[in-house]
Structure formats: structure tokens, C-alpha cells
Amino acid sequence: MTGKRTYNITSLQRGLRLLHLFGRTAKGVPAAEVAKASGLPVSTVHRFLANLETAGFLNCDDAGNYHLGIACVSLGQAAREQLDIRRVSLRHLEELNRRTRETVHLTVRHGLSAVYLEKLESPEPLRIYSRIGASVPLFCTAVGKVMLAYVEDGEQEKVLNQLELRRFTENTIGSIQELQAQLQRVRKDGYACDLEEHEPHIRCIAAPIWDHAGLVNASLSVTGPAVRMPPTRLREIAPLIREAGMNISRDLGFQTAGVQTPSSPRPKSADRRGATNRISRKRVPRHDAFGERVEI
Hints:
- The chain is α+β, with helices and mostly antiparallel strands.
- It folds into two domains: 10-80, Arc Repressor Mutant, subunit A (Orthogonal Bundle), CATH 1.10.10; 83-291, 2-Layer Sandwich (Beta-Lactamase), CATH 3.30.450.
- The protein contains ten helices and eleven strands.
- The strands form three sheets. Strands 6-5-4-9-8-7 form a six-stranded antiparallel β-sheet, with helices on both faces.
- A hairpin with a 5-residue loop joins strand 10 and strand 11.
- The longest helix is centred in the C-terminal third of the chain and has 21 residues, at 231-251.
- It is elongated.
């Protein structure tokens, strides 16, 4: 099999380098500075800038400073729309499936539910049943709790108010106060667990996936029979699934700068304080992600 051929068109390469230069600055740049930064003659730079402006990739303001133009915006939006989260995630899901030998899911949020977008089966003889396209509740599943935990403060209270806390098993969360305590821990730990809360004998651990805007509308999980998923095993899987979630997030264009992640404290806001006063006034027993009691 022959390697991919390389075509080096000098003028095109120069034009692309100039566009990248504008992408690294938040303000307009005059032609003289472009020439200095690129190392190209001023006359050459002027020709490139004129052509890029004509094509809509740059525009020039009244002060003679050049900025990225509307054509760049259109291309960027099209690129984001073509970034298929399933395609981007697949190699990371396969690696997680290989390392854990358990069923791996990719899910997205749809209203008050999480929908399975992709599934990789466990190679073990005893495995769990699920299917792509099925939906599960947010409040009692690991994939759902992860997405609930990272809903923006003002929006989270509205979503919690809409939840109907139906009891699926004896372990299902029974109150908003208990759910709120779990969501706070998810934000701290960066993952969530489902300890037979949605289905008996099934345990799951999930981590968030951030998109390019720093929002969490997707998650990934490792799910298996309770007999293979004791707390010690869940603790072993936790760093693996957090790593996979962050790798997928980066491939989707997520940048950690200025965005809330598990390692940084959650900012307080008026909405957040209001939700705490309304929802968490009652003291409730606290447990860690693996169901063990925590003294408060």
C-alpha cells in the first residue's frame, strides 16, 4: 500500500499560514504587522490580503486592520456540524471496552432522558442487555446523573423541578435532596455511579463529555453485572473512564481554559444559592459514589 502523496503548493501554504495568524489574535492586525510576523515581503502580503478579503476570508476596517471574515465563520460552523460525536468517540470507546472487558455506551441527553447512541458489547459470557436508541431516565442512571450534574446552574433547578422520581429498584434515589447531594459529588469527582438504581444486579460508572462550547450533553459509561462490578472494580475503572471522556471532549474541540471541570471549584451564583436553600435545606445522609457512608 502506497503512502498518501504530498502536494506542496507554496502560495496556498502561505495563504493558510496567514489565516492561522489571524486566528491567534483577538484584535485586528495591520498589513505591516502581518508581514513582520510571517516573514514575507510587504508587497506579497498585500496581494494575499487582497485576495483573502475578496473571497470573504478577511475583512478590513477603517483603520486598516484586518480581521477574519464571514467565510471563516461559515466554514467553522459547517465543520462543527460535521463533527459526528459517534465517529469521534469510537476509537476511545473501543479502547475503554478493550481495557475493561465490559459493555461501553455513548449517550446523549434528550429532555429528561439519556439516549444510547453507541454500544460496544462485553466479550464476557455474562453481559447486560441494552440497545442503541433506547432511552433511560436521567436521575437514576450514571449516564444521566453525569449530564444532570453539569447542567448550568440556572437551568439545573428547572430540570430538577420537572423530574418524576419513580422508584425502579430499592436502591433508586427517593428524593430531590438525595439527588442533589449526588450531583454535587459528581461535580467533585468527575464521574457518577449507578449502583443497581435503575435495574437490579446492574452497575454502571459514567463520565461527562464536553463539547466545543464547554457544555455537557453527552456521556460515556462502563456497565456490567453487579457480581463483576464491586466498589473496588468501580474505583479502578473511574480514572480510565474520566480519561476517555476528556480525550473525546478534546477531539470535539473542548478547551479547559475558563471552563468548569472536576478539578476546579464550582462558582457560586444567586441561582445556585436559591436552589440550595429550596432543595437542600433538609440534612440527608451522605454517601460516596460507591455507596459507602460519609460522615458530615
